[in-house]
Amino acid sequence: MKWLSRLMPGLDAGDRKLLLWCVGIALVLAIAAGILTPNNEDANRLPSSYLSGQHGALAAYETLLQSGYPLERWERPLGELAETAGPETVILFAQPMSRDIADIRAIRQILDRGGRVVATGFEGGFLLPRGTPAAPSDLTFAACKLEPNGLDALASTGEIWMVPQASWQLGNPTDRVQYTCAGKPAVVEFGWGKGHVVWWASSTPLENGSLSRAQNLDLLLNSLGPKAGHKFYWDESLHGEIRSVWTFAWGPSMTILCWSLPVLALLVIFSFSRRSGPLRALPLPARATPIEFIDALGSLYRGAGASSTAVAIAWERFRRQALALCGIRAPKMEAAELAIVLRRRFPLADEALEADLTACEQSAKEEALQPREALRLIQLLNAHWDKLKSAAGPQRAAVEHTIDNGVIHERAS
Fold this sequence. Notes:
Blueprint: H1 2-7, H2 13-36, H3 58-66, E1 71-74, H4 78-84, E2 89-93, H5 101-112, E3 116-120, H6 121-127, E4 133-134, E5 144-145, E6 147-148, E7 161-162, E8 167-168, E9 176-181, E10 184-192, E11 195-200, H7 216-224, E12 231-235, H8 245-249, H9 252-276, H10 290-304, H11 307-326, H12 335-345, H13 353-363, H14 371-392, H15 395-404
Parallel strand pairs: 1-12, 2-3, 2-12, 3-11
Antiparallel strand pairs: 4-8, 5-7, 6-9, 9-10, 10-11
């Protein structure tokens, strides 16, 4: 306990005891979860030759070994295999997870040396030279019985079932479609340099859950080619897995432990800091004065370049007030019509009334309006309104009372 007191000198004996209890309970729960919770490999959809779940490929790997195929897993950089590759090299990429330029160059070098490459899935198509995979337009995630389409031996494999995850964009005459699903290419092969390429729309036929269905195993064997005189590699270097002793220990228990310990540490830190921190009242936020609010609003309009919005608001306010002053209720009235109404009600109104109203209406719709011009138009509207109120005489008080009581509701356009 002395080492714990030196590590956390700010904690008293009660807090240290609580911390030890919490850590002990977390460890017990993690160990119990690791023992009682099975490691469900079916949730892992990676067709790795190490996985025994439904989507794994351990059964296909062991079947090839038992059938006498000189097969090994390749987990080192792909460039090392490309340097020693030859016509006897056959490599399988089951759903690789890489678009690295170095990997693409290594695969092209293997093909140039006469090797054979079998790749599956959307990402596998990108690794191939001249690869043009495409996502299918309608993914049903249901098994599809492939239809033979080619004249080569690969198309004579038999009944094949697959859940396509991609399609192949045709356009090169050397691309030979061997199987299709709903009219879309599912198995394609072509030559490149001295080598040969076979592409599947997904790795379903070689997965543990589908390998024994129909002739899926035969498709794998025919895609790899004859075993005599060849050396086969099952690539695991592009699956992003580095297998070690901790790989087998990793599971739900380690996941729970990795999540629970940081959360527990944060709870201890926050609980200690809240009790030991200074207690003082927060300062009251300073309220902005009206002039500060106006400055902030002006800065907002200036930053957004919304000069026309300010003119539109002033024009709408003037239009509503002027109609109320004339005793007219109209949902919408253009500038020319409003000028006629005001001229009829106030014959001695300013001579520039019609021109100013038209200019304001047009500027309210102009996005590139300059701030100085917007200010000038708003000042003209205020000046016309002051003259109209003066000419209205006793009616002015009634109109202002109506506006102040909310009968006239203004909205920014």
